[in-house]
Amino acid sequence: MKFSEQWLREWVSPQLDTQALADQITMAGLEVDAVDPVAAAFDGVVVAEVLEKIQHPDADKLNVCRVEDGSGEPVQVVCGAPNVAVGQKVPFARVGAVLPGDFKIRKATLRGQESRGMICSASELGLEEETSPGILELPADAPVGEDFRGWMGLSDHTIEVDLTPNRGDCLSLKGMAREVGVLNRLTVTWPDVQPVAATHDEIFPVRVEDAEHCPRYIGRLIKGVDVTAETPLWMVERLRRSGIRSIDPVVDVTNYVMLELGQPLHAFDLANLHGAVVVRLARVGEQLVLLDGQKVALTDGTLVIADERGPLAIAGVMGGEHSGVGAETRDIFLESAFFAPLAIAGQARGYGLHTDASHRFERGVDAELAREAAERATGLLLQITGGEPGPLVEVASHEYLPAEQRVHLRATRLEQALGKALPAEEVTEILQRLGMAVDVDDQGWRAVAPSWRFDIVIEEDLIEEVARIHGYNRLPVRRPQARLELRPDHEAHTPLGRLRRQMVARGFYEAVTYSFVAPELQGALLPEAVSPVLANPISADLSVMRASLFPGLVRALEHNLNRQQTRVRLFETGLVFRGELDDLQQLPMLGALVCGSREPEGWSANRETVDFFDLKGDLESLLAMGGEPDVWRFEPAEHPALHPGQCARILHRGEEAGWIGTLHPAVRARLGLKLDVVLFEVRLDTLTHGHVPAFTPLSRFPEVRRDLAFLVDEHLPVQALLDTLRGQAGEWLTESHLFDVYQGKGVPEGRKSVALGLTWQHPSRTLNDEEINQLVDAIITESRQHLGAELRG
């Protein structure tokens, strides 16, 4: 809402300067966005009258004029404006005047003719942003010699207020004046709106077919208007200062009343109306050409104003081009209606529109305002355009009009919310100043909200009103009192943040992808997956819920590869959805993907690409954070999206927890990927569940190490060998690890050499060779019998 401070002060004028007034409005909950002067700085400009105009002898487009500027002697000035005429009142910049842009007026000689001053256009005075085609014509009663800036009231400011959606009652000067009056305990001087007596009894019929969406419709026929009349300068200026351009007197009056009272109006050309005005919902296939020239196909559920031939306007949004007022209009039908906010909400946006009318109707207009606005507009039209008004025609359905809102405010609840007790008399006075009917009872106050405050429905609304009128800055400032208990830190739990930081530390970037994926992509990676299908997806390629993190990570990989990023390391955490809606599992997962070179490009880095074991090492670093690496296992398995020979099922305490592997070549080819891709995903709950570490005293006795090299079948997992030797190595085995795998000369075909390092240490004594040899013999025997392993010579 943008309005003139000077206009506001004609209604209510507190003893505050401009900035203090803006601050007061802001502190009342109506945030002031900007305070700007209505015109640029200039001086030395007066009102003058053109006494004489003759053609310049040496220039076709220049005129030599003599103007009376109140100095006692006519002044000669050369003017090139096409609309200058004898008898006009004009703004005249005398010699020495300074116009906007620090433009100084000096004596000049133009084509041999002396010019002492300048007749000004609106743009030259900073009253219009666009260049004006001619000089600014002033009313005939403008006083010659009067300072133009003072006479026009240009030492004024526009105040722009950013209103919350619930305060539609302040989308008018009347609403803003009402607020300022309440805040300063001042009486507001309202315009005296008197009913206009009808001079003829002709009416135009009105039929409301959708009373629920249009509970009140008022119309009036005004005959013989002069659309060519000139809108008064005072009205043009008030519209300009409110951000609205003057168009013609009929449109200007409807816009003016909307700004003044908050009621949008519309005027139809009676010559383009047929039969009756009908308020109804749009029908299938109907179209409408709007005032801005846009042709729209009306959708079901759109409330329209129509006649017997078809739609004339989108109700509460914009009128149609063919029914609007034009230069040939002689009779008009003036509309003033109340449309239910839910009937208008979203309609303008649905057609790509946003108008001042829709902005107000969507937020709510006073249901009792339509008649007053129609009378006000009629009076202004008769003053400016003349005409003969007919009687008002009203169609109202009282059962659909907003009902009175009665709200109970408890004194105890008010004190609890504000943190202080207010005198009962002050609360009563605040509510009454806000226009409410108030009854006081033992518990507090019972208030009836006025028709313009449709946002007051519950007790908290009244508390807010009392608080802001009393003054937020007058409420006590207290620190919150609470007993703050330390939250227990579950040491066995690995926070998700630590897992994320670990992945970032290992060179990964976190990806955030949609929970919806393309069915084709999910089908390529997980052909047997079952997940919910969206009934109303935002797009065709986001129509199913993801059953795995793989589709989103692969899509992110494609996005990076298409932008010349050949080394990609991504991870993601999020929910996956498995099963139908009636038996849906939502599992939190952590997934990762690597592609491209093993090391970042550099002079010391080789060009080897990542493989299965690179990503497995990254995953094992996460598993180790839980403190229980021994509860995890990797076993060979087959997954439809992963390479059969480079794929493993991840087990946690013997149960499946995830998958890791290289993307299947056939799947890679189907997706158009040229590089090998390695992925994993693991259930997040298994990663975050860990083990509390405990201190073990360090042994003071020496450790004993034995290195054993076994010849085993080349397909035998090393984990099987490690499990066997740990089962036979006894309780004093402190470390076992793989340090070499060899195939080649000296090793039979189909076999591999696996070298393991074993370390023993006793906490209270030195182990002897005999004990160690017995354990080694047990390991060799068990490995030979169950795994076919032979000790390599």
UniProtKB/TrEMBL annotation:
Binds 2 magnesium ions per tetramer. The keyword Ligase applies. InterPro entries: aa-tRNA-synth_II/BPL/LPL (IPR045864), B3/B4_tRNA-bd (IPR005146), DNA-bd_dom_put_sf (IPR009061), Fdx_antiC-bd (IPR005121), Fdx_antiC-bd_sf (IPR036690), NA-bd_OB-fold (IPR012340), Phe-tRNA-ligase_IIc_bsu (IPR045060), Phe-tRNA-ligase_IIc_bsu_bact (IPR004532). It is an enzyme of class 6 (ligase). Mg(2+) binds at D455, D461, E464, E465. Its cofactor is Mg(2+). Its EC number is 6.1.1.20. One of its GO terms (molecular function) is phenylalanine-tRNA ligase activity. It holds the Pfam family tRNA_bind. SMART domains: B3_4, B5, FDX-ACB. It is found in: Cytoplasm. It catalyses: tRNA(Phe) + L-phenylalanine + ATP = L-phenylalanyl-tRNA(Phe) + AMP + diphosphate + H(+). NCBIfam families: pheT_bact, YtpR. This is Phenylalanine--tRNA ligase beta subunit.
